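Task: sequence in, structure out. Protein: DNA repair protein RAD50.
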Amino acid sequence: MSSLYKLSISGIRSFSPTDHETIQFGTPLTLICGQNGCGKTTIIECLKYATTGDLPPNSKGGAFVNDPAVADRSLVNAEIKLGFISVDGKSMTVTRNMQLARKRGARGANTFKTLEGQLAVMARGHKTALSTKNAELDARVPQYLGASRAVLEYVIFCHQDDSLWPLSEAGVLKKRFDEIFEASRFTKVLDTIKTLRKDMASDIRLIEQSVHHAQVDQARARKIRDKLAASTAQAEQYTGQIADLTVQIERLEREAERLFSSNQAFQRTLGEHQRLSLVRENTRANYDRLERSLAKVDWPDEELARALAQCSGDQEKTRAALEAAEADRASAADAMSDLQARFHALTREEGLLSYKQSQYGEKVARLAELEKTTTQGELAARQKTLDTALAAKDHEIAEASSRLRAAQSSLAREQQSRAHYMREAEECGQRARELRQKVALASADQLDAERGELETLREKRAKRSSGARSDELQAQLARDKITLARLEVENDDMVSKLASASSSAELQTRRDVLRSSHTRKKNSWRRNVEAHGPQFQQLLGVDLDPASAPEVLESRIRELEAAQKKDAAAEQSAREEWSRAAAQMQSAEENLAAARQKLSQHTNAVSAVLEGDLSEYENAVSEAEEDHRAAVFNLNTFEVTRSYQLRAVEIAEKSSCCTLCSRSMSEQEKNRFVHDLQAGLKALTAEKLRADVDATDRDVAELAAIRVDVVQARKLAGEIAALEAKAAASKSAHADLSSSLETLEASLKKTTAELSSLQSLREPVRAIASDSAEIDKLEAEIKELEGELGDWGSEVPVYELQSLQKQKAAELRAVRQAVSDATDEFHFLQKDASRLEGQIKDKQLLISNLEKALGQTISLQGRITEQEELEKSLKAKIKECETLATEHESLCASLTKEVEELQRSRKEIEESAKKEIAALKAESDTLERLRADIKEYEEKDAAVVEDNTRKLEEVQKEIEASKATMENTEARIKQLQAEVNDFKERERQMRDNMEYRQLEKELDRLEEQLNELDVHNAEVEKERYEVASKKLRDQISELTSSLYGKEGEVKQIRDQITNFQKELETEFKDIDKQYHKEWVKLQTNMLVSNDLQTYSQALDKAIMKYHSMKMDEINRILRELWNQTYKGTDIDGIEIKCDVSNSGKGRSYNYRVVMYKKSSELDMRGRCSAGQKVLTSILIRLALAECFGQNCGMIALDEPTTNLDVENAESLAAALNNIIDFRKNQKNFQLIVITHDEKFLSHINGDSYTDNFYRIERNENQHSVIKSLPIHLMQDD
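Result:
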């Protein structure tokens, strides 16, 4: 359970900002008293601020802190330190710090700051800080005290201004009771549960929809699966039919191939005839073309060939001469370009110099004109005139200002005199009124009546003053009081010594603690400096200075962060460029590799057919086609050749002569001739010729098949060269970017490493700076404590002084008890005597005043007349002062106007003169600038003009010579071009003649070949072949159409199957699992929602039960306290009524305080007196503290007797006494009573519970100080 044990205050309200005033809270009672305005309520305010962080009412803007103007300081630091025992028995200290700064200027507002505080715990002799943030302190301190923030603010440490809150308006009362009961916590829980159930209901509706949708999707998926099975079966059926049709089509195609293979002869004949016809037509067209444009020559072929060769040689020589002439022309053109460039440059320079020359003439004329109009020395003379005029005006202004100040001084004197006379006149009037009142009080009849009443009272006193017991009690009281006085003096001396010794011991303890902290901090600081100083010096180049190191480090870190950001951006940009270059290089290499692979494939395909290079492909194709034509020709003429050779053999054997030339042969020649012919016949067979045709046909087909490979290979060869160049360029660019990226990465890495090193120093440097500042602070505090310890001196140990003080206190209590018993007995005897004595003294004083008034009546009348005359004379002086003040005011106004007029005139003169001076200065600057420009032209540009003109003429002559050379060269080139063209025409004519003769021979050869082909038989065979082929094609077409139809249907069915499967895989994937999952989720959410409903109802009932139990307990305690305290008969009892309202937003409680009068219930608000309000509020707070403060058993009462009469104040004291007796055995019960009424404190019987009380008073500096005094001093007072 928690309790308070010490409070220290500095700089709060009227407490000094340089000293710490301390108060120790005892158990079960702490009494604090003092006059009004001495600072008693500040104790409550400090306790409330320390525990909750809330400032007192109406103290915004720094009113809670000692004002800097009063303290004569520019800055006031305030501190509140509260020591307490937490609910878990730990010793803790909370410190709150504030600052109030005075702004400059008389009307400047103060600046209030809430500084960081501290919450510390003492564990095993060491102080450990738990938190320094004010927000955390506001939350954690109430937790450690075991009471809510509302209970601390409204019940335990309630401010005097808010003490009547139980009888405030309904809204305020409800708000505070809700905070005390922490209704918002329970309401939030119920609202949260309600929100959860609402959200879950929404979720359940959504899940139900999901379940419904899943169920519908499940049914749709089932239908799609059925359609999928039917489509699959139909597709399989069509697939079988397609297989049968495919077999039939393949059989018919094989028959067509056999038919085609058996009818190739006529195809070859017709093909050859068609080919030869086309060749003949092309050759005939070329022949006709040449014949139309040809100039025929009759030279033999050999002479024509020699003439063509000679023409080609002469053409080459002429072309070489032409190229040399064109080279000369290009060289001359380059020279001409250079000359023209020089000419243009000199022309531009000529224009610029001409412009400068014209400007020079204009400036010379302008200079002559300005020298005529400008007078030397005029500027200085005008400046001197201005200074003289301004000095005269300044003298006039000074004289007028002096007269104005004299008039203002006279006006001020008259106003002061008038105010002085008015105060004296008012004082005279006041004195006259007081004297008149005294004269009115004097009356002789009243004096006689008062004297008679005095004699009556003296007779009553004489009758009641006799009695031996009274004398005996007086004697005993006199002896006991002497003893009590002696013991009190001795006890005060002992308390003073003990306080001195305690203060000295406390100071020594504080000094030792500070020294220990100083040593630890010093060692920690030294270790940090030794550990991080070299690194700091290495990285920053300066020694580690604790004062400036953080700023230097942060500055360098900011520089490096900016550099790192810049390097990172550059590195990122370079990396992106490198990535793009790498991608380009990879793409180029991949394209090159793909091209090479394709080239290899095409080359391999060509190499398999063609031996040699790709350039020989066309020659190979021509040779193969020629071989094929020869083989076909040999095969076609085989029978004719064979018959001719057989006929030749037969003629040779019969006639011994040659069939072709009819030349006769010898026997030997005949035998050899026959042998050769027979050998040729044996070697030349139809099968061999047919094989040659097939072989050459295959060669032609193979060469035709690789035509695409040859074209692609040649194309790829050109592309590969370009790709290789592109790959090389990409690789070079990538290498350059890699080098640049590595440089940037190294720079970024270096900057990052240095930044990381510096950032690692940030916390150590901050710690060093913080430790250094704290070391300086500790050294200052130690020095201050040592100075204070020099003023203390204690020879006796503290524990001996405490023992002696306890003995004296025991003796004092015994004597006090004896005095108290005698006083109680004597009180009954002396009560009436004291009352009569007081009445007699009052009558004697009244009679004395009446006698004095009667004796002073005449002198008072004279003094009244004197004061009236003095008042009249003072009023006349006031009127005279007002007249003089009016005259002085008029004079001041006229002088002020005169001064303003003089100042305005001076300003106009100064501005006008400044404009004239500025114009003169501008003319002077123009003269100087013109002279400088003219001089510069004469020294630099005049000579350049002549030189440029000479160069321009020389360049023009060179251009004319170059033009003549170029014209001669151009004429020679034209002559050579005409000769070359003539040679070309002669060469073309010769070549056309040779080609014409070759085409003529070719036409003859083609006619012979066409005549030898048997075209008629081939066409008959073709007709039979086409009929059979058409029949087969029709059958194949019919079957193919049927096949394509079936395949189309199968494809459509398979597309449907694919769509069904895709739909099942996408829209209805795992639909059964989803349905089951959503159904389980629905059931789970419904069960959880029902559980939340049950829990919400149970919690609501528990909250109502808790609230009703607490209200019953509060009202029970309130009834007991009211019956013990209130002594009136108009109110039988009071209660707190709680009305429950169930609105749409939930349950809420409305509170009101009621009183009972003869079984009638009435609201107390607006019906009770001020004293009843105070008493009711105090008792309600006591009842709330009893109910809600089990763990925090303290309560502070600030001025509890306000508006209470004596009887009710004594009753309240008795009730508090009963509460203390009832709870004094509770370790953490603490009642703190703050009041100015020390009689009220005496009725509490404080001496039974404590030996001292605290008195707050103002010292000579008007600062509040707290003094701890023995309890008996309060009773004597």
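The radius of gyration is 66 Å.
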